[in-house]
Amino acid sequence: MRKKIVCILLSIVFAFGMTGCVLFEHNYEADYQQVIAEIRPITETRNNVPKKNDDGTPMLDADGNPMFDDQITFTPEKQVIYKSELISLANSQLSSLLQNNSGMTVQQGVERLYEQLILQKLVLTEAEYSIAFREIIWGMTEDNLVRKTVYNSIDTQLDTLRNDIREERGEETQDSAAEEEDDASTTYPVPGGEEPEDVRDTEKWEPSVDRYPGLYGDVDKISLDNQAMARFIQLLKDNVESDFRVTDEQKKEFDAEFKEMDNIINTKGMAYVYPYLGETKVVDWLLGTTVRNNLKLTLLQEFLTESATVSDAAVLDKFESLKAEQKTSYDGDYSAYKTAITSTSSTTPILYHPDSNYFYVKHVLIPFSDAQTAALKAYKEDKTHSKEEIEAYRKQLVNGIVAYAHKDGEDDKSREYTAEEIFNEIVGSMKRYEGNPAMAYLAEQKFEEFIFKFNTDPGIFNNAKGYSLPYKLADGETDTYMAEFAAGARKMYETLEVGSVLDEMVITDYGVHVMYFASKTKTGFVNIRDTETPGSSKTYFDIIKEMQETSLQNTRFTEWQQTRIAYYDKLSADDVPESERVIVRYTKRFDDLYKD
Fold first, then answer.
1. Does residue 208 contact residue 430 with C-beta atoms inside 8 Å?
2. Which bin fits 15, alpha (ψ -120 to 50), beta or left (φ > 0)?
3. Helix, strand, coil percent content, the chain, rounded in steps of 5
4. CA distances from 141 to 136, 189, 202, 343 (A)
5. Span 276-282, mean pLDDT?
6. Residue 153 phi/psi, 5° resolution?
């Protein structure tokens, strides 16, 4: 699985508007367009560069000998940084930067962000060199990953536009269906995460028909999808019109693409604009370039840090030090333990438990439809209905749930399921593992299969341990989960063994939950050779080793950046004639951002 760059240089930012506090506003077009830095190209030549296949393996001649290019010369494109880029970055990051660095002035903050932009351009240039000289392989696999990520960004924007329309109508907004990991390419994750890196794509990826907005659903859904797509197309046009970087040549190309979109709408329908978007230069301009650059940075980091490993002794030392730290921390402050065990983002494993109060559950969520959710909300808001009547009404809604199995990460609409059918399939299949602790490994693996087959809760996919809950609440403590969910979890804790499913539906405002007793904590320290969960093959040794290697890799990447920056700065020093400098800084062009 590809690593994420910790020292983030780029973020996938959709160009359509900005949210949050705007610190700097300029209404002068010429001011936005000022170039505040230039990165001038350096031509490099390398001899005897190995030829490589698309999978990165050496290309061999008829006799099985490696093949080489005698010489490759590469000159990257000149890069410029506009004042608008610095203003955009400052508006999104300067406030948090100043809050996290006590004593930092606005000028210092702006200058740091300015240097970050320069570093971004330099590292991307280094990635271009590595691709040109075949240190990094770029082929169909990488092109496909860019396309998948672009489509996820499109889906996210369409979700936002749908909610805008709902708000205008006075309707309740809906959670985004595209709230997934950055690299996800399907509505739901697929087992095993991403494909192994040694498996290369041989065909161009295309979005499945199920993703086309406006192609499926009732009249209201199709109408909403069509309106959102129409607004999306208009946003594309507005951004092209307002982006001063668009050349006359690009403008002609983009206008031709917009005409083709109109033609598709008139001849095939709005839904069929969706697959065309990924073929357009305008979407590539607004989205694809940034996505592509992010991937290049990731590939460069992998290339530069692939040899970063830690010894077994270092892993053992880290294990012992973490145990000592956690015991001191958690025994002295139980809230620290509570924060750690309920965190969904921490990468540091819990190696010490001051008590055995917490346990973990997993579930399959079979959701109510949007219409059912709205009906339930309206019923609850009618104050004439008692709690018992509301529960009965919600239970009755379960009979109308229509669900689908997932195939390749998408709803398989060739067959509809009721909630009861899914519940019976899961419970019936899991019965064989009940009451046998030795079967806990197989039980967890089987329930994971059902998660990927039927679940719609994004928080439980690839969630190794599941959701943590305390069996007994402390004085004044309240549950973070819905009351019915928490009650079902505690019933499992009291009556079932780890590896069992609750043999009754748990119904909340979200829908039906099929609940699984994943694991429970034991007072004291874990063993380094213990697995994190009963169904996992990954031990605490493996987890800590991976954590340390990730830290080492990011440290090495940061050190490499500093070395390369020093190299470029030397070529851009004050004693170097300006015409010969690689980095040319025009700092006076943005000093109005911090001067009174």
1. no
2. alpha
3. 50, 10, 40
4. 13, 18, 8, 34
5. 96
6. -65, -40
Under 8 Å between Cβ of 511 and 328: no
> What is the rounded CA–CA span in Å between residue 293 and residue 302?
14
The answer to whether 289 and 280 are in contact (CB under 8 A) is no
Q: In one letter, which amino acid is 258?
A: F
- The amino acid sitting at 424 is N
Determine the residue type at 431. K
| Mean pLDDT (the chain, rounded) | 89
Q: Check if the beta carbon of residue 24 is closer than 8 Å to that of residue 566.
A: no
For residues 59 and 66, the answer to whether their CB atoms sit within 8 Å is: yes
Long-range contact pairs involving 530-536 (C-beta distance under 8 Å, separation at least 24): 532/349, 532/464, 532/465, 533/360, 533/444, 533/464, 533/465, 533/466, 534/440, 534/441, 534/443, 534/444, 534/498, 534/499, 535/440, 535/441, 535/442, 535/443, 535/444, 535/445, 535/448, 536/444, 536/464
Give, rounded to a whole angstrom, the gap between the first and last alpha carbons of the chain: 49
Determine whether 267 is exposed, middle or buried from the number of CB atoms within 10 Å of its CB (0-12, 13-18, 19+). exposed
Collapsing DSSP to helix, strand or coil, 48 comes out as: strand
**CB 488 within 8 Å of CB 513:** yes
SS3 (DSSP) at 204:
coil
Beta bridge partners of 39: 79, 583
> How far apart (Å, rounded) are the C-alpha atoms in residues 441 and 495?
20
Q: Are 558 and 12 in contact (CB under 8 A)?
A: no
Yes or no: say if 208 and 15 are a contact pair by the CB < 8 Å rule. no
Q: What are the residues facing 120 on neighbouring strands?
A: none
Q: What string of DSSP letters covers 289-317?
A: HHHHHHHHHHHHHHHHHTT----HHHHHH
d(CA 112, CA 333): 37
pLDDT digits (tens, 9 = 90+) for 135-155: 999 999 999 999 999 999 999
The number of angstroms, rounded, from the C-alpha of 237 to the middle of its chain's C-alpha atoms is 27
DSSP secondary structure of 496-534: --TT-B-SS-EEETTEEEEEEEEEE--SEEPPTTSBSST
Instruction: Tell me the β-bridge partners of 353.
Output: 524
pLDDT in tens, 20-66: 344 445 455 678 889 999 999 999 999 999 998 887 888 998 988 98
Sign of CA dihedral 334, 338, 341, 347: negative
Structure tokens at 109: 């903050």
325-334: average pLDDT? 97
